[in-house]
């Protein structure tokens, strides 16, 4: 049976946010991910782990990560109570492509001093683990693929990972929040709204990105996005434009269906 909204809101879900600062504009994703994690904490009621942000980890997790990084990743993947959010960016896509090569090429955008040392170690390793564990890579209850569509077009999406459910943010925040909690959207119910401050933080981070395109004029993708839904999740326009508090859903479906034969218009 589906969780009740009351039970959903009481549970703090552990999530591992996986992203890469690699890529041409990789450094601009740091503030985007930071704002995203704050929304996950306050809006989606999550305890967020990020191996590129040591302060996000409890002391015991931090010690384990520093001592045995690979074993730490393995331990989280073996825990059914920990869910994984993978942020699709050009740099993440690049890391995944390099992982498929026997001898990864040297990439100038991934050699700067700003790239944390755990990124080239753990991101490719996690991609390999998912590649070698199809049951996990296609576990829609544990693995979530997200993309910030205002700054990353569909070419950034990763292959072979929960291919039929992809979340475009910020449009699909409500769907993501309920899915992370193991529930689904129940008409008329919503999570406690995030603060104006955190929404403004996300808006600022997105608009500062060199590839930013306003939500209604994003035409950078050469092909349309692959998501369809008869009643897609949306945010009120003023959430995106003004960063106000009312992050809401309309009377809408809780699932995002992908039909490659009948794609939506570009995001």
Task: Describe what you observe in this structure.
Residues 215-229 have a biased composition (Polar residues). Residues 207-229 are annotated as: Disordered. By secondary structure, this protein is α/β, with parallel strands linked by helices. It has one domain. It has ten helices and seven strands. The protein has a five-stranded parallel sheet with strand order 2-1-3-4-5, covered by helices on one side. The two termini are 34 Å apart.
Radius of gyration: 18 Å
Strand content: 5-15%
Secondary structure: helix percent: 25-40%
What would you call the quaternary organization? single chain
Structural domain count = 1
The secondary structure category is: alpha/beta
Sequence of strands across the biggest β-sheet: 2-1-3-4-5
| Total number of helices | 10
The tally of beta strands, per DSSP, is 7
Low-confidence stretches: 1-6, 217-267
Give the SSE order as H and E letters.
HEHEHHEHHHEEHHEHE
- Basic shape: globular
Averaged pLDDT: 76
The termini sit apart by: 34 Å
The major beta sheet can be summarized as: 5 strands, parallel
